[in-house]
Write a structure and sequence with these properties.
- The structure is a single chain.
- The chain is an alpha/beta fold.
- It folds into 2 domains: 240 residues, no CATH class; 262 residues, 4-Layer Sandwich (Nitrilase/N-carbamoyl-D-aminoacid amidohydrolase), CATH 3.60.110.10.
- The protein contains 14 helices and 13 strands.
- Helix 5 packs across helix 6, helix 6 runs antiparallel to helix 7 and helix 6 crosses helix 12.
Length: 517
């Protein structure tokens, strides 16, 4: 068991390295394969141990950027995510007895990812296998099969590699051959990428106003931040009038560009009005809006130069223990850190895109971009362009910045939409539907990214499939687990009947004795 746990520890660390900024993607199948090798041949009562070690090495390393918020949030979230890998190690034991076990194991991995993306307290999608594929040959599959489908392909590559490793002689050839075929098929869209005809074009500008000081504390400088976004928008307007920059159809400010309610603060209202008047086009600003004494809203609000505040989107996935306190009735006032969040952020439910300058825009605020549901829903309901408004200031010196921007690039591929990212101090940029970065601004600067982009109405197969691929994996795992358990019981009954006539010593079935692939 010690050797298994050591290998699990190394494999978990390796899997973390396959994500940006290191992005050693080619190691991913080997890391997944190692997980299934070290949990192989163990009973349920002990298979969870190396799985847990693997998960700890992976999640505690991948989520290290969270330590800037505090050790407790980093430890708590990482530990919660780690548990899922321990459960997976135990849950796949019955599946190994089935024919085509590598497929069942891969489905189980994706089912686990789907569960941890939603539970507990809304889940945490960071570390899905698909989030490592941007810029790789597999990325072209995203508009066809989506993030869940790509995770399944990557998990299957690992389980097939594990199957080839654990078998002997010619038995290795079949899983190895299937592995090559799977990777070839997954890479085909790179040579025949998804395409669609644009329905129109607009020019968009994303403003990055920056955060004073160390760049990490938004609340300490909230008025200066709004003023800097306003001043940068005024500069953009001056460039437009001077002919140095094309006039945008609309402008995007990031999340927390106003960190208090602009509808109740005259100075905030004035700063926004100054910016809108200077540019003369609608402004989609990220604002915090009061919602009574106990709640707040994190919104993207459209400010029109003629009609004022209009359409708005509310963040779908507030951060638990960061923007709201789940089970507040349980914790009460016993944890001092929770007193820093006196009001809970209310979850948004809007399913249609917002209207910005006549353009149906699918909005995502910060960590919304890591969840499938809100994005798929808005695009399916007619969103022709995607916007990500984010305030990553507290993480500006960590790997989180690169990881989240990579997820934004993935969404561009998956939805076949241009994605406009407005970050409070980085990374702000505009991403094409093929995942390439059209333009971006340096981090920690007052600047803007501007480009003419195409609008698309076609809905990709990935968006049409939506959450059904994850649900299918969950259903299949339950069925397969029951089949595996039934087979195990039949084997035990057969052994019990034949035991009196058999020698006392019974050979143990090893990995090479199972039906290959």
């Amino acid at each position: 068991m010690r050797a298994r746990c050591l290998v699990a520890l190394v494999a978990g660390l390796v899997l973390a390295l396959t994500f940006p900024p290191t992005h050693a993607f080619w190691l991913l199948p080997f890391a997944v394969a190692a997980f299934f090798v070290v949990t192989d041949g163990l009973p349920v009562r002990s298979a969870w141990v190396p799985g847990l070690v693997f998960g700890a090495a992976f999640q505690f390393t991948l989520l290290w950027w969270l330590h800037v918020v505090g050790d407790v949030p980093w430890l708590a979230l990482s530990a919660t995510q780690t548990v899922w890998y321990g459960l997976l190690g135990a849950a796949v034991v019955p599946l190994r007895r089935l024919r085509w076990s590598p497929l069942w194991l891969a489905v189980a991995w994706v089912a686990m990812e789907s569960l941890r993306c939603t539970w507990p307290a809304g889940g945490m999608p960071w570390g899905r296998l698909a989030y490592a594929v941007v810029g790789t040959p597999v990325a072209g599959s995203l508009p066809y099969i989506g993030s869940t489908g790509v995770s399944l392909v990557l998990a299957l590559s690992g389980t097939l590699l594990a199957s080839a490793y654990t078998r002997r002689g010619r038995a290795r050839l079949l899983p190895a051959g299937v592995l090559v075929a799977v990777l070839c098929v997954a890479s085909l869209p790179t040579f025949a990428p998804y395409t669609a005809n644009p329905t129109g074009h607009v020019t968009v500008a994303a403003v990055q106003g920056n955060v004073p000081g160390s760049g990490t504390d938004v609340l300490a400088h909230y008025r200066e931040i709004t003023q800097q976004h306003s001043a940068e928008t005024v500069r953009l307007g001056a460039d437009v009038r001077a002919g140095r920059t094309p006039r945008p159809d609309f402008v995007v400010w990031p999340e927390n560009s106003t960190a208090i309610d602009p509808f109740s603060d005259p100075q905030m209202t004035s700063d926004i009005n100054t910016a809108v008047s200077a540019i003369g086009v609608p402004l989609l600003a990220g604002v915090i809006v009061d919602d009574g004494p106990k709640h707040v809203l994190n919104q993207g609000v459209v400010f029109n130069p003629v009609t004022g505040a209009g359409d708005r989107y509310t963040k779908w996935h507030p951060v638990p223990f960061g923007e709201y306190i789940p089970w507040r009735w349980l914790f009460g006032d016993r944890l001092a850190q929770l007193n820093q969040i006196p009001r809970d952020m209310v979850r948004g439910t809007r399913v249609t895109p917002i209207n910005v300058a006549g353009v149906p825009v699918a909005d995502a605020i910060c960590f919304d971009v890591a969840y499938d549901d809100g994005i798929y829903t808005q695009v399916a309901h007619g969103g022709r362009l995607m916007v990500v408004q984010t305030s990553n200031a507290m993480f500006i010196h960590t790997d989180q910045i690169d990881q989240q921007f990579a997820i934004s690039r993935l969404r561009a591929l998956e939805t076949h939409r241009y994605v406009v990212v407005a970050a409070i101090n980085g990374i702000t940029g505009i991403i094409a539907p093929d995942g390439t970065v059209v333009t971006s601004t340096p981090v920690r600067t007052e600047s803007f990214a501007e480009s003419r982009v195409s609008l698309y109405a076609a809905v990709t197969p990935a968006v049409r499939i939506g959450a059904w691929s994850g649900r299918a994996c969950l259903g299949l795992v339950v069925v397969a687990w029951l089949l595996g358990l039934a087979q195990y019981r039949r084997t035990r009954r057969a052994f019990a009947v034949s035991a009196p006539d058999e020698p006392a010593e019974v050979p143990v079935q090893g990995p090479s004795d199972r039906t290959p692939v």
